[in-house]
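Justification of resources, computational component.

The compute hours requested in this renewal are based largely on the per-chain cost of generating structure records like the one below. Each record pairs the submitted sequence with a full structure-token output. That output is archived, and it is also reused by downstream analysis tasks.
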Amino acid sequence: MTIEAIDFGRLYRDHLAMTTRPRKNAADWDARAAGMASKALRSPYAQEFVARMDLRGAHSLLDVGCGPGTIALAVAPQLQQVIGLDYSPAMVQAMRAQAQEAGLGHVQALERAWEDDWSDLPTCDIVVASRSTTVADIAAALAKLHAQARQRVYLTHLVGGNFIDPRIQEAIGRRVPAMPDYIYLVNILHRMGIHPRLDYIRNENRLADASDFADFASRVAWSMGGLSQAETERLRHWYTHTPPGEREGAPMCWAFIAWEKAPC
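The structure output for this chain reads:
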């Protein structure tokens, strides 16, 4: 067998089917919109993502899974047209509010999911998908991103497949199967005739700034699809006996995947 014979899109779907992490719905993200919007634009992650983007010759951008506009609004002052897509109504409203506050009249936010029809959307010079590619069919998603871009595509996808450090999962007594990580995307792009640039963004784990145990447990429960009372008590015991600097686990690592529409 050669690598050309392997259907990485199917392998991704098979891997995803074996995981038990429930997909977040729009209401889940609605509940987080206000908190994310308050700190999105000043996050080190956003700064590192934007620093890796090439805006030369670009006038328009499409941000898929835009959230409150973390990436789109950071580069909007340098562009003439910016469109954000998100399936969370509250995230869409947060992006609109921030754009209005900043006087960015050329920014548009639309309530739209990955699986929806995008045929009415314009082709944009740059397409981004920041931490939003945990989807049911990644091969179809990558094809849609590529089709919407005129010049370049930038995305990030989780490295290693764990949103919660395995050591914390062990302390709780429930291991969550790892999600499909970035290597599937690289191989699918190869099958598409695309040779992407690969880099990595490491940022502080989202548990690091939890104010107390209740906040910490709430964040763990979000990532693990909820905690039972017994799991919460095990987590409390671990939290109490673990030094503060070690509680959050390893930093998050995101693969930054970029490609040009022009052949390599």
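The mean pLDDT is 91. The chain has one domain: 3-163+176-206+250-260.
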